[in-house]
Write a structure and sequence with these properties.
Blueprint: E1 3-5, E2 10-14, H1 32-42, E3 52-57, E4 65-71, E5 81-85, H2 95-106, E6 111-114, H3 123-129, H4 139-147, E7 158-163, H5 165-176, E8 181-187, H6 193-200, H7 206-221, H8 225-234, H9 241-252, H10 258-265, E9 278-281, H11 292-295, E10 304-309, H12 326-338
Parallel strand pairs: 5-6, 5-7, 7-8, 8-9, 9-10
Antiparallel strand pairs: 1-2, 2-10, 3-4, 4-6
Length: 339
């Protein structure tokens, strides 16, 4: 389906979507940049009940595991487990992850805030434990972690959602066949990693670029294994995210270079292989990831559908109608439709 719903509020494409509310930005967060920055400027997180720590082995011979925090609703509602995947330099405590976890938990789902390899709220422990580090194409890590979940957690199935880099990873996972996953969602996903790298390195995004690169350096400087060793050996040569990907991420993970990494791990070319209901959410004014990479797609009859409001920024979607970001309502509509 292709069209515009409401007064130029929402462009949709792909498979038929459940009815979605229009997105109206909350004042004063009325631009893509302000929507993007709000989580960092405000930083309020809803409370979550105490969770259970999980360590899910990857089984690739490294001894690495993905860790996470599991929260269960007060009563067993027989609803599927919701798994949330964070973005670049994030973890289970990222504001958008905690907010989404509280939302889905309040709707009766058990929720797992899953950390990618090497990430976690206790970063010193995570770095000491992980011999390798996550990247945008590390879908095998998540597949192994889902497979290692106790059977009682996934007896009703799994619903999965990822933000930014985690969204690309989720889409790649689903395109490759996500066993036991009933539906998925990706918010502000860089489905063309090269185009996203070029956008974040534009002069207008210099502040974002410096912030991300600084956080990537902080993660790498103390990380063990080849990832950390490559960073320490090349630190003086790394002036950009492209340099980091070319000199650290690519060689640590068997890619010929940054461009080979971008080509092989971008989820965009894989979307037609997705068979389960999957919602991609992207704002037309996202300052980090160009909307053109979504608009240029020929949306075919796969499991994937796109919802693109005019506003929302990068993993923002702070709406005027509800304190919980709009993308959570859209994802809930998809998940309810599946159930």
């Amino acid at each position: 389906m292709n069209g515009v719903e409401g007064p130029s509020v929402l462009f949709t494409a792909g498979r038929a979507l459940p009815p979605l509310p229009p997105f109206r930005p909350r004042f004063p967060w009325i631009t893509g940049d302000l929507q993007t920055l709000r989580n960092n400027l405000i930083g309020r997180k809803p409370p979550l009940p105490a969770g259970t720590r999980l360590s899910l082995p990857i089984g690739d011979g490294t001894g690495d595991a993905l860790t996470g925090a599991l929260h269960k609703p007060a009563e067993d509602t027989s609803k599927p487990l919701v798994v949330l995947i964070h973005g670049l330099t994030g973890d289970e405590d990222s504001t958008n992850i905690v907010t989404s976890a509280a939302w889905h938990l309040g709707r009766g789902h058990a929720v797992l805030r899953l950390n990618l390899r090497g990430a976690g709220p206790v970063r010193e422990h995570a770095r000491a434990a992980a011999r390798r580090w996550y990247h945008a194409g590390a879908s095998a890590d998540v597949r192994a972690a889902l497979g290692a979940l106790p059977g009682n957690l996934k007896r009703h199935g799994i619903l999965i959602a990822g933000t930014s880099l985690g969204g690309n990873l989720v889409l790649k996972l689903l395109a490759e066949g996500g066993d036991g996953v009933l539906a998925g969602a990706a918010i502000s996903a860089p489905i063309d990693l090269k185009a996203s790298q070029l956008r974040i390195m534009q002069p207008r995004n210099a502040v974002y670029h410096r912030h991300l690169l600084s956080a990537m350096r902080a993660d790498a400087v103390r990380s063990p294994g080849e990832h950390g060793a490559l960073y320490r050996a090349n630190a003086r040569r790394i002036r950009s995210i492209y340099d980091f990907d070319d000199l650290v991420v690519a060689p640590a993970n068997g890619f010929a270079g940054a461009d080979d990494y971008y080509r092989r791990c971008s989820a965009g070319p894989m979307l037609d292989a997705i068979t389960v209901p999957t919602l991609l959410i992207h704002a037309a004014d996202d300052p980090w990831i160009p909307a053109a990479i979504y608009r240029a797609r020929a949306w075919r009859d796969s499991g994937a559908a796109l919802a693109m409001p005019n506003g929302g920024g990068h993993v923002g979607f702070h709406g005027a109608d509800h304190p919980v970001p709009w993308h959570n309502h859209a994802i809930a509509a998809l998940f309810d439709g599946v159930l």
